[in-house]
Amino acid sequence: MRELYIKSGKGFLLVYSVTDENSLKELLALREQVLRIKDSDNVPMVLIGNKCDLNDDRVLSIDDGIKVSQDWGNVPFYETSAMYKTNVDEAFIDVVRQIMRKDAATSAEKKQQKELQKQNDMTAEEAASNNVGVADTTKSTSKSKNLAKNARSNQAKNDASNAESKNKSKCCVIM
């Protein structure tokens, strides 16, 4: 069941109790499980030492949490108190921001790959149209129409590109 939650999760708040050293040791294994299931070292994650309000019962220091955070590649670390809501919102906001950054980067990468594929497809079409012999007049007429259409499309793109470079506008063509 835990694996299903990890697999579908986008970000993780890894919480241990500052009053229980064993909870931190268990958390180390849980982090390894998250990285293994997600098959990535780049998983949105925040380390949280909870129960910071119980100073008399404290077993783990702030430095212990900072050291673990550094060992994990400077994962954000917070000491929280669920009882007093100390740093709780901040920890959630941090992990949500990490998720949003990762989603934006993934989206930009997919968009770039899609544009590159589109350019490759257009280049392949142009190369194929230049190497085709004419055997049938109906085929040649439709091919001529397609070539003319592609030529007009390419000319329009070139005109727009030239207008953009002249006007130095990044958002629209000014005519």
UniProtKB/TrEMBL annotation:
SUPFAM superfamilies: P-loop containing nucleoside triphosphate hydrolases. Residues 108-118 have a biased composition (Basic and acidic residues). GO terms for cellular component: membrane. InterPro entries: P-loop_NTPase, Small_GTPase, Small_GTPase_Ras-type. Residues 128-164 have a biased composition (Polar residues). One of its GO terms (molecular function) is GTP binding. Residues 108-175 are annotated as: Disordered. Pfam families: Ras. GO terms for biological process: signal transduction. Keywords: GTP-binding, Nucleotide-binding. This is Ras-related protein RSR1.
